[in-house]
Amino acid sequence: MADLHGSVCLNHPNTLAVARCATCSKPICAECAQEHDGVKYCSDLCWQNAKRTGLMVDDVNRRKGAANFKRRIVQLIQLIIVLAVIAGGYYFYKTHKATVDAKIKQTQQKLEQGAKDAKKAVEDNTVNRSSTYKRNIEKIDASDLTK
After folding, report:
1. Euclidean distance between CA atoms 147 and 139, whole angstroms
2. Degrees, nearest 5: CA angle 79-83-89
3. In a 3-state reduction of DSSP, which class is residue 33?
4. Given CA atoms 78, 82, 83, 87 in this order, what sign does their dihedral have?
5. Which is it for strands 27-28 and 19-20: parallel, antiparallel or unpaired?
6. How many CB atoms lie within 10 A of CB 111?
7. DSSP 8-state secondary structure symbol assigned to residue 9
8. How far is Cα 43 from Cα 32, in angstroms, rounded to an integer?
9. pLDDT tens across 112-139, in order?
10. CA of 17: how far to CAs of 26, 38, 45, 118, in Å?
11. pLDDT tens figures, 81-110
12. CB neighbour list of residue 1: distance below 8 Å, 6 or more residues apart
């Protein structure tokens, strides 16, 4: 609680304050103090404000809790979907293992052959220049040289 040493009641300037209002922090004497639920207030207005504010805070906390609950539900559903996709992929692989492995090997061979062809083309300096963009650039460069 705030220090009341030397504080006087704002309603009774000749009386020492015994507490501060829980809402507005105004120093109050024993005569002015109103106690509600073990808390001291300077007036009914401050008590009503505190009650209304408390209800608003409770409502905000309730809404926040509901939003957090919905977020958790969405995360749980997303997790279930991911696990179902993984389980489906695993089941498909297990039931079609030979076909999947053959496709993987075929793709790997195509990639290796493509890499070999690219390496050979670079080594032989026979890179395919059939690109329209490249031809247009070369024509522009050739025409610039003739000027």
Report:
1. 13
2. 150
3. coil
4. positive
5. antiparallel
6. 10
7. -
8. 8
9. 999 998 888 877 776 555 667 766 776 7
10. 9, 17, 19, 92
11. 999 999 999 999 999 999 999 999 999 999
12. 19, 20
